[in-house]
Every structure is written in structure tokens, then in C-alpha cells.
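ok so for the tutorial part 2 we go from a plain amino acid sequence to predicted C-alpha cells. step 1 is just haveing the sequence, like this:
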Amino acid sequence: MLRRLIGISAVFAFLAVSTVAEAQNGTLFRIGTGGIGGTYYPVGQTIAGIIGNPPGSRPCNEGGTCGVQGMTAVALTSLGSVAIVAGIVEGRLEAGFVQSDVAFWAHRGIGIFEGKAPMKGLRVIASLYPESIHVVARRKSGIKTLEDLKGRAVSLGARTSGTLVDAWIVLSLAGIDEKSGVKARYLSPDIAAAKVIAGELDAFFAVAGFPSQNVSRVVSSGHAEVLPIDGPAVDIALLEYGFLSRGKIPAGTYNNEAEIATLNVSALMVVSERLPADIVYTITQSLWREEAQRLLSNGHPKAKLVTLHTALDGIGIPLHEGAIRYYKEAGKLK
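step 2 — the prediction. this is what the C-alpha cells look like for a chain of 334 residues:
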């Protein structure tokens, strides 16, 4: 099932920014994130403000940001993790936020990337936070369990997203074939949420840190609820896919009275090995400064989980040499 190929052409929605990596005589550092209604984009905006120090800005020792001098970092929306890794390898992005499973498969040329050249040049700066797989069902659809998805109109995520990969895995847990078991749609979460509200879609998958804006919107409208991912098949999946872990969506996150069992992957900040080590060192150093942690704690709820303590959790692919240098100095690596 997971050997089916996805076209990985990277189609990005650039937000009022040049595709040339230069800005006002400085350097433009493009970070591929996700949709505006997801988690990657708002967290990416905060991190972009931390790791850059644009031309004309005050230097770090005078109260300015402590990022790379002369570099303007920008968070860009994208169609998902699969598109982002392609953008990094092909030089259209300097960095990106990707799911740990997608990074793992891309680096090795397996899973959804089987038949493609392994993206051996992918490197990690940090593991950011856990992401939860959301299965959101329209209330009037009668869908209460994963098995109820069979034969229904379900969005599995955009074709270039990591969500699609995880949707395949979750459907397999319920014994549902992704090709014939559902009426598959391939929509971004924001469009899928709108179609659920309009009664044009029965369910959709989303992979994001909670609370996800798209999921919150459709649940708050009274049109949908989040399904649990549980049962004996989950134990098998955890053994087969080492990048997955058990997770729980806390009570009250989506008007839910009790915790919702789910599966998690990790969100990674990924770059190319071609990026100079000094730049990556400064980016890594700036990300873990005390001032940066304050900015993150005041941002999106998931940004509070971006900490040095978990920076090396579940990365799955090699660290960039500039990041290795920092983590050794910080005592995180020997």
C-alpha cells in the first residue's frame, strides 16, 4: 500500500515574496511550512523572526534579534511535507518543517519515495514538537469509528502532503483499502473543513499540533467531531512504523469531554547539507536562546513545546554539521 508513488512536484503558495533568495541586499531564507490554518505556519512565523537579523536591524548586543546578520527569514505556505523536502533538495527553499515519517522515507528513498533517488542531502536542525493525526467526521454522517469510514467520501490530504501517508496507515488499521475502500478526495485541511461544514464531505484527515485552527473551526461550528485512533491494530502499527507514537488530545481541546486517543509523529526543521555550517550553527544557537524561548512560549500553543530538552527526539535522519557543533557545545551531544 505505502509503496504507491506520489508525484512530488513542489508547488508553493509564496506570500508576497520573491522566489530569488535575496532581500534588500541581504539574504532571504525561505522556510516552507503548511497552510495558514494549520500549526506549521504560525510556528514558522515565530521562528523566522527569531533566526534572522534583516539588513538595518539592531545587532544582537544592542537589543536586536540574535539570528544570522543580514538574513531575512520568511515563513511560506506550502502543500505539505512531501512538497517541502523536494523544494529543499531542489533549492527552492532553504529550510522547511516536515513530518518525521516523510523525512525518514525521503532520506532513504523508501515508502512513498520508492523508485526515487534517496534524498541523502536532507539534514535536521531540530525536532520541534509532536504532531497528532486528526480524523474529523461530519456529525450527521453517522461515522463514529474508523471502520465507519468505509465507502464514505473522505479527504486523505493533499497529494504532496505527509497527511496522505498517515491517512493510508490509519485506514489500514481499520482494514480499509485506500484505493477502493473510501471515496478518496485529496484536499488541504482548510478546504476539507469547509466541505464538511457544507455537507459535501463525510470526513477528513489532518496532521497538526493541537489545537489545529482548521479542526477547531469545523468542530466549533457543530458540524463535526474528532474520532479516536485506538484498538489492537495500533500496537501493530507502532511496531511497524518506528516514527509513530501514541498520543492523546486533551479534554476540552475540541469541545471533547474526554481525552481522544490518537497517533503522533514529530515535526522537524529540515535543511540541505549544502547550507553553510556557520549559518546553521547561528540559526540553531539563536533558536535556543532564552529570548527565543520567551517568544515561542507567547505564540501558538504548540510553540511552547519547542524546547532544547526535546530538540533531538525522533529525528530519524542526520543532523546538519552546524547543528551538531551547537548541540555538542550545549552538552546535548558527545
